[in-house]
Amino acid sequence: QVQVAESGGGLVEVGGSMILSCAASERTFTMGWFRQAPGKEREFVAAVAWSGGFTDYADFVKGRFTISKSYALKTVYLQMNSLKPEDTAAYYCAPVIRDRESWRNAGTNWGQGTQVTVSS
Predict the structure, then answer these.
(1) Could you give the CA distance from residue 92 to residue 42 in angstroms, rounded to a whole number?
(2) Using an 8 Å Cβ cutoff, are 58 and 65 in contact?
(3) CB 93, CB 55: distance < 8 Å
(4) Angle at CA 54, nearest 5°, toward 52 and 60?
(5) pLDDT tens figures, 6-45
(6) 48-to-11, 13, 38 alpha-carbon distances in Å
């Protein structure tokens, strides 16, 4: 089972930027970022394939977030720009599989996540 470790969260002002990292124990499946705000369900944010240039984004982050990876380091990144208060959430990464028009965890345990707080 793929193990992941997220890092890079913290407090940032509205309009600011932040980059999150996700270290994976192995390269398998496409990798995705999710987020969960208090009282809300976890939602898909972005996905990237280990090979090739495939990426996918939720509509609410298109143009603001960029997902990328380092194949050699087995690490996936999420560059977040123009942050909004509604981006405040715990962010998680996981290997993903396609689920209708979105993506879901491929069945691995969730990591501890990393908290992003956007202050207004």
Answers:
(1) 9
(2) no
(3) no
(4) 155
(5) 999 999 999 999 999 999 999 988 999 999 999 999 999 9
(6) 25, 27, 26
